[in-house]
């Protein structure tokens, strides 16, 4: 018995070969030889990204450090003024309201998109095959509509005189008379219209992505939890959310990037009005550059937007990496 045990221990001995007497130490260079082939394969893509993304960013920073106005378009003279454009933006009384408005609007869009997208994904999981296919086609159709075309359609829907929304609400006779009601004449209702439009366009991607994640969760976990007496909310909190955490973080990152840069919808519907009530950083940068003919200050506002967005993205990416390590 002792001999068998000793032989088994010897056979399963995890001690490395280098620790045994008389054994040769492994070569430290073995397995560490690097080949330049991966870098050569990545070089074309890296060069393309540097040209497409890097050059515009560098050019944006350069313009923000120059006195680049309407006169520069004719004379070509763009003297360096350092951080003067940033100081002008910092001293502008409009900076704080625009910044708060942008962050609040972005947060409302992200929360609304994730909540509605999750509800649609959960609904799709409970539908039959044909109904699920119909919902999927409807989501893809809504997602495929270009931003400008969709915004023009929604502008017609909320048109004060001939809009379908005012006509429908008036016919229902529940919310009162909405004839000639201008939804875009007040900041809150204008933001509500823009919020509805952007969420309508963003929900399809989030819903389809979350539904794909739901299909990867083993059904045995739900069955075991149900046998243990767990209710629907408990199963959702203990099983669904932990499994979908990496996907939720990923779609959150993408939603923050998209919603922070919303421009077409706001510009077509309100142009930042009424009384600058729907002006975000993107709208402010555009009006500074092209309406006020101060391209340097417009570029400075754009650089500030990029830095804020980069900080938010780094935070979410770190959360995503940590979530992947925990799994």
UniProtKB/TrEMBL annotation:
Coiled-coil stretches: none
Determine the domain of life of the protein's source: Bacteria
UniProt-listed CDD domains:
TM_PBP2
Q: Which Pfam families match?
A: BPD_transp_1
PROSITE patterns reported for this sequence: ABC_TM1 (PS50928)
Bilayer disposition of the protein: Multi-pass membrane protein
| Keywords per UniProt | Cell membrane, Membrane, Transmembrane, Transmembrane helix, Transport
The ABC transmembrane type-1 domain extends over: 99-316
Q: Which named protein is this?
A: Carbohydrate ABC transporter permease
């Amino acid at each position: 018995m002792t001999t068998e045990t000793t032989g088994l221990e010897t056979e399963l001995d995890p001690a490395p070969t280098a620790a045994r007497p008389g054994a040769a130490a492994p070569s430290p260079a073995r397995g560490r030889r690097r080949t330049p082939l991966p870098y050569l394969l990545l070089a074309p893509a890296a060069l393309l990204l540097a040209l497409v993304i890097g050059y515009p960013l560098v050019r944006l920073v350069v313009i923000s450090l120059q006195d680049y106005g309407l006169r520069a378009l004719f004379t070509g003279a763009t003297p360096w003024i350092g951080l003067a454009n940033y100081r002008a933006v910092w001293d502008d009384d409009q900076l704080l309201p625009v910044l708060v408005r942008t962050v609040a609007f972005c947060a409302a869009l992200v929360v609304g998109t994730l909540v509605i997208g999750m509800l649609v994904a959960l609904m799709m999981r409970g539908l039959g095959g044909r109904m699920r296919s119909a919902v999927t086609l409807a989501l893809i159709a809504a997602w495929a509509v270009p931003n400008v075309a969709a915004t023009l359609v929604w502008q017609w829907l909320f048109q004060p005189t001939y809009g379908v929304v005012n006509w429908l609400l008036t016919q229902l006779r529940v919310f009162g008379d909405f004839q000639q009601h201008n939804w875009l004449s007040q900041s809150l209702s204008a933001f509500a219209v823009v919020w509805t439009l952007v969420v309508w366009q963003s929900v399809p991607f989030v819903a389809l992505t979350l539904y794909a994640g739901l299909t990867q969760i083993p059904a045995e976990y739900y069955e075991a939890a149900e046998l243990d007496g767990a209710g629907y909310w408990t199963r959702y909190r203990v099983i669904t959310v932990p499994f979908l955490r990496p996907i939720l973080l990923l779609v959150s990152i993408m939603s923050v990037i998209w919603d922070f840069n919303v421009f077409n919808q706001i510009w077509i519907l309100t142009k930042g009005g009424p009384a600058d009530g729907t002006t975000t950083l993107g709208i402010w940068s555009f009006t500074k550059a092209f309406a006020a003919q101060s391209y340097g200050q417009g570029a400075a506002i754009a650089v500030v937007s990029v830095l804020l967005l980069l900080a938010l993205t780094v935070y979410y990416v770190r959360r995503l990496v940590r979530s992947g390590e925990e799994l």
